[in-house]
Amino acid sequence: MPRARDDKRRYDDACGTAHALELIGERWTLLVLRELMLGPRRFSELRVDLPGISANVLTQRLAELEQRGLVRRRKLAPPASVQVYEATAWGIEAEPIVQALGRWAARSPGHDPTLPISGVSILLSFRTMISAKRAKGVDARIGFRFGADDYVARIKKGVIKVARGDIGQCGVVFSGPPAALAAVVYGGQPIDLIGVSGDRGLAEKFTTLFVLPPKVGAGG
Asked: Each residue of 71-111: pLDDT tens digit?
């Protein structure tokens, strides 16, 4: 990265928050890192799930994140043999930042939940918005198929953990556009909007486990 550009981002402030903004405060940077929170992705996959970013900007942001130690490149083993990007252990530590920002911003009256959302983003939102009270007693494996990507969520003791995995042993599997699943879970739309296979009762229960924070009133 050219030194001039790097200096332009500096705040000359010893506060950790200032340095955090130097690391991930550039436009698109945090969203690119968000998309790597659940495992490695190809460049083309990132382009699909970040439709507003250009190829040039995505290339720049990935290079910057790699230089800062938050992302690394590696080549998948045969037969895939393709280059992917993945978050480093330190990069993954930023997930609570993504969660806290998401919960905080969801209180804004200007937040529009009908805009496009990626599979990784909706799954991370589940980890943020799950209600321990509503999930009490639920012990289940839930599968998600978004295009060619499969994820498994394990719900137990009011906590949800999500990772890529085999959805074959899941009690229920949701499939289709992530935005449709978001509309069902957060928008109160009928469950038939999304593909469901397996335990229908468990699917309906799952869609009730997540609660958005209340909107900020006129007085803040």
From this structure: 999 998 888 779 999 999 999 999 999 999 999 999 999 99
Nearest by Cα to 139 from 170, 174, 182? 170
Task: Spell out the residues 6+ positions from residue 27 whose beta carbon is closer than 8 angstroms to its own.
Answer: 57
- Which amino acid type is present at position 218? A
Q: 191 with 204: CB under 8 angstroms?
A: yes
* pLDDT at residue 4, as a whole number: 43
- The 10s digit of each residue's pLDDT in 115-133 is 889 999 999 999 999 999 9
Per DSSP, what are the bridge partners of residue 210? Answer: 130
The 3-class secondary structure across the chain, one letter per residue, is: CCHHHHHHHCCCCCCHHHHHHHHHCCCCHHHHHHCCCCCCECHHHHHHHCCCCCHHHHHHHHHHHHHCCCEEEEECCCCCCCEEEEECHHHHCCHHHHHHHHHHHCCCCCCCCCCCCCHHHHHHHHHHHECCCCCCCCCEEEEEEECCEEEEEEEECCEEEEEECCHHHCCEEEECCHHHHHHHHHHCCCHHHCEEEECHHHHHHHCCCECCCCCCCCCC
Task: Tell me the backbone φ, ψ of residue 128, rounded to 5 degrees.
Answer: -85, -40
The pTM for the full model equals 0.90
Q: Is the pLDDT of residue 210 over 70?
A: yes
